[in-house]
Design brief:
Its EC number is 3.1.2.-. InterPro entries: HotDog_dom_sf (IPR029069), TesB_ACOT8-like_N (IPR049449). Residues 61-144 form the Acyl-CoA thioesterase-like N-terminal HotDog domain. This protein is of the alpha+beta class and 159 residues long. The chain has one domain (3-152): Thiol Ester Dehydrase, Chain A (Roll). It is built from 4 helices and 8 strands; from the N terminus they run αααββββαββββ. A 6-stranded antiparallel β-sheet has the order 1-2-6-7-8-5. β3 (54-56) and β4 (61-62) form a beta hairpin. The longest helix has 19 residues, at 64-82.
């Protein structure tokens, strides 16, 4: 079993989604934090303010690439957390981002919802906000290719 799969299983067994961050170093690089949304099984992703994430110091505003990566990461983490049997990371097919207003250098929060999940494809909608969830700074629609279930994976030929 890979270290990734083991860390995800430990995170789920403990009910602590923060352990997922250790399995995906880019999330730690961005400084993303995770917490449970009150009264749901959903996760909230939190991007604390950091000077290194500013793209336009004149406003100042977060770099658009950081906002996009944050939205994609929030969707990925929610998909992993909601999956019953994680064997590998889901692969991004497409991500469409709508930048709605400048994201200032303050805490940014995102919630990803699985809008449809089939056997091989999952679709998620992610919304990010600062201070007021009714005034989002960006949103994204993402499609992920899910790893095949263990019974459908191709096994290498023995010969």
């Amino acid at each position: 079993m890979s270290a990734f799969v083991e860390s995800i299983r430990q995170a789920k067994a403990s009910g602590d989604p923060r352990q997922v961050l250790a399995a995906i170093p880019y999330l730690a690089f961005l400084g993303i934090q995770l917490r449970h949304e009150a009264g749901t099984d959903s996760l909230l992703s939190v991007l604390p303010p950091a000077d290194r994430l500013i793209g336009n110091p004149r406003l100042p505003a977060l770099h658009g690439g950081v906002v996009g990566a944050f939205l994609e990461s929030a969707a990925l983490v929610q998909l992993i957390w909601a999956s019953e049997n994680v064997v590998r990371l889901p692969k991004v097919i497409t991500v469409t981002i709508d930048y709605l207003r400048p994201a200032g250098p303050v805490e940014t929060v995102a919630r990803a919802d699985i809008t449809r999940q089939g056997r091989r494809i999952a679709t998620l909608r992610t919304v990010a906000w600062q201070q007021d969830p009714d005034r989002p700074v960006a949103s994204a629609n993402a499609h992920f290719l899910l790893p095949p279930p263990p019974e459908e994976r191709d096994e290498p030929d023995a010969g």
